[in-house]
Amino acid sequence: MEQTSGYDQAMREHTRWWEFELSSFSRRSVTNDVLSAVGLVQLGRLPDFVARRRRIAERYDRGLAGVEGLLCPPPLPAGHESSHYMYWIQVEGGIRDRLARDLYERGIYTTFRYPPLHRVAAYGSDAVLPGADEAAARTLLLPMHQGLTDADVDRVVEAVRECVPALLRRSRGRSLAGV
Predict the structure, then answer these.
(1) Helix, strand, coil percentages for the chain (3-state, nearest 5)
(2) How far is the C-alpha of 50 from the C-alpha of 13, rounded, in Å?
(3) How much is the pTM?
């Protein structure tokens, strides 16, 4: 019998593979000299990494503009700069999880990295924040790292441009059928 990891099992099922639960807080960690030396070299490369990420974000912005039911990050205010750590999109119609699955089946890994803090068990909150919950339910992070080629980004854009309208049509068709 083939053994599978929890990750593999989650990917086979239609679950949110990116979800995890924090039940307690972690400790402070201090790195060693070797890892610190690697970090210093990488830090010197940071301006190039950020510049590449900015070009990727601009390519996403151009490629995804005008897709019905899709919201991309707004332009930064004048005088502000981003590290482009992530590139998020928001989709309407309750299709986020299906979009993530469809993209994954095309070899494009997406995630939703940070749940609303009032939903993290470690904080013990009983807050009711429907706006935060709504935003979380609609948000998906597209691949974003300096190693992406223009062809990689174009492939993601093409897949999103194909999947979102198709999923919205199916979603709207189901809701109309229930009327």
Answers:
(1) 50, 5, 40
(2) 35
(3) 0.80
